[in-house]
Amino acid sequence: MSRFATLRLDKVSRSFGRHAALRELELEITGGEFVALLGPSGCGKSTALNCLAGLLPLTGGAIRIDGERIDQLAPERRGFGMVFQNYALFPHLTVHGNVAFGLKMAKVAKAEMVRRADRALEMVQLTEHAHKRPGQLSGGQQQRVAIARAIVLEPRLVLMDEPLSNLDAALRLEMRTEIRRLHQSLGLTTVYVTHDQEEALSLADRLVVMRDGIMQQVGTPEEVYGQPANRYVAGFMGYRNMLDVTVTAAQDGDRLVLRLADTPLTGLGRDALVAGGRGVAAIRPEDLDVADEDTTGAVSAAIEVVEYHGRELAVQARLSDGQPVHFRTGSRLAPGDRVWLAAAAERVLVFDGRDGNDGQNTQAAPDNPGAAASPDPAQRKSVIS
Question: Which of 175, 229, 302, 334 could form a disulfide with 217 if both were Cys (CB 3.0 to 4.6 A apart)?
Fold first, then answer.
């Protein structure tokens, strides 16, 4: 398999008329990495992948492998493998024929072609289905064929465009494990596009969070999950509660004293905020705990909606100032109940109260990646104080 040390996207841009779908994307990928491009529909992640593949020409910037510019090469000359969302299999060919198709086009000798196709099918555990047509396979099996077709070419880069989005929940979990296993066992370099943050966190070595064609943050799953660079990234990575607060004072380091629904509390400032300013406190539902009424820093909330999620309930409540709040609990609650909620100060991230998108690229490269690690279980039960 052809290897490379670095793949660099240097201010890569792509416009459609006046619409800039991708704006000066700067990213360096090391050989052997698994990088996930993450964001909602229309954020530019698939555009970036198609630019890498050569399916879309750039309108600005360059793509280089080990210093050599490749963005002007035709797709078939880049040596990449591609796995599409809709599988893109040939219905008239057998499974083996689909996998061997690229090798046939490359004029690989027949014996070698058969050997490599057999090996690829063995890797994705489809040997016994080699003579079936794609229409005779399940969705998960068809996706395995698509993956085998990509890796049989021994590509220096594998590109995957939301490959699991058409599968049911159980198959998605199974295929996630399979994709990661193949990446590791074959020493692949993979760029993976998804809108599913759980999928990205479980698969990737690094995440690239996109919004409106602009890279918002790049970092390890631990960095992006625990230290979101801005309000947008926080919301996308599961900080469902975005609560309007007033900053009343600054303490040591990045600690801020806040007021939420007439309750004083403490959080960690992620933007330059001063006393008297407005902020947004981002809190994950799982980081809010039901507390006693007399707990310092606990806020009162009235239960509105309760959803059963197995071992716990997902609850929507409303604070006294009218703001909705979401939390999870194992306690039995019902609409109309009143509870008091608290969270560890380290789990309350405070951003500027204005729109979270400043229109600039934000890189996440903290000096202490472990700073966002989960706190001690005892600390987990402490309150906003």
Answer: 229
| 3-class DSSP state of 74 | coil
Give the E-state strand segments of the chain in sequence order: 6-16, 19-30, 34-38, 60-65, 68-69, 80-83, 157-161, 190-194, 206-211, 214-219, 241-250, 255-260, 263-269, 278-283, 289-291, 299-308, 313-319, 324-329, 338-342, 349-352
Banded pLDDT at 170 (limits 50, 70, 90): confident
Q: Which of 161, 160, 158, 129 is nearest to 145 (CA)?
A: 129
What lies within 8 Å, CB to CB, of 222 at 6+ separation is 369, 370, 372, 373
Question: CB–CB of 44/55 below 8 Å?
Answer: no
Task: Kindly state the tokens that stand for 42.
Answer: 């229309």
Instruction: Single out the residue of 365, 221, 382 nearest to residue 289, CA to CA.
Output: 382
Instruction: Give the residue-averaged pLDDT of 233-244.
Output: 95
Q: Which two tokens stand for residue 223?
A: 């960095």
Q: CATH 3.40.50.150: does it fit domain 231-380?
A: no
| Plot region of 39 (φ>0 → left; ψ -120 to 50 → alpha; else → beta) | left
Q: Is the pLDDT of residue 97 over 80?
A: yes
Q: What was the pLDDT predicted at 106?
A: 87
| Domain spans, the chain | 6-226, 231-380
Which residue intervals of 204-354 are DSSP H helices? 221-226, 231-236
pTM: 0.85
Q: How far apart, in Å, are the Cα atoms of 58 and each of 37, 62, 213, 362, 382?
A: 18, 8, 13, 22, 51
Give the pLDDT of residue 211. 97
CATH code of domain 6-226: 3.40.50.300
The DSSP code for 160 is E
Burial environment of residue 323 by CB neighbours within 10 A (0 to 12, 13 to 18, 19 or more): middle
Query: b/e for 72-95, b at 16 or more Cβ within 10 A?
Result: eeeeeebbbbbbebebebeeeebb
